[in-house]
Amino acid sequence: MSAAKPMQQAAILQYAKQLHLPTLGDQFVSxxxxxxxxxxxxxxxLEALLEAEVEERDRKAVTRRIQxxxxxxxKTLEEFDFQSVPYIPAATVRNLSEGGYLTRKExxxxxxxxxxxxxxxxxxxxxAACRQxxxxxxxxxxxxxxxxxxxxxxxxxxxVRNRWTRYDLIILDELGYVVMPDAAAELLFQVIAGRAxxxxxxxxTNLPFSEWTTKFPNTRLCKAMLDRLTDQAHxxxxxxxxYRFRRTMAKKGGKA
Length: 256
Prior knowledge:
The protein has helices at 6-18, 22-37, 42-69, 90-97, 100-104, 118-131, 141-153, 157-166, 182-195, 219-230, 243-252, and strands spanning 108-112, 136-140, 169-173, 200-205, 234-239. By secondary structure, the chain is of the alpha/beta class.
């Protein structure tokens, strides 16, 4: 194999552009030079070139999924310090990151006090799902309810509600943080019920299930919502010691 000549390079660049193969166009010269140096066969060179194109497309696809998910900040499970919070089952969370719960359409609930890592863990699972090419969307319970109420007022509730049911995974953050009027709770329940056994949902909450009626005054609706969310759910208690506070103190060299 010999390195490509200038006219050949120009022709290959043009073909790569027409075929929408930007990575091939960027790397065919350097990979050709490497192939010559290592005395690779033509097929080995072609394999390396196509592999580079596929890897770059995969990387861009994951990046696009993460952007579309609208995470408040991109946090991964690799960044979570499980050693500082040994009561959080690291093996369980890592097993969930493999995506079986998505296939089985099972809910995941992170329950614990403020600052215990619920949102980080939820986003970490969301990023893992994006890496598996799943359509993910992050929102807070308050944001979702606001969007649903606005859609109802504009006579677009069905369209918006259906959109929420089409994601492979939605992450519903801060559920139960504020009292929710019956009308708002009903709209939220419609989305949760519409996804039950059809698509996965991750919920974070600081409220024990026994206290949900303090935020959802309609006892009947509250019971129905809990029934949908906890059926076959993975429930992970993140405790009551602030993970954020411990992490901040560790960075400063102090003790929590």
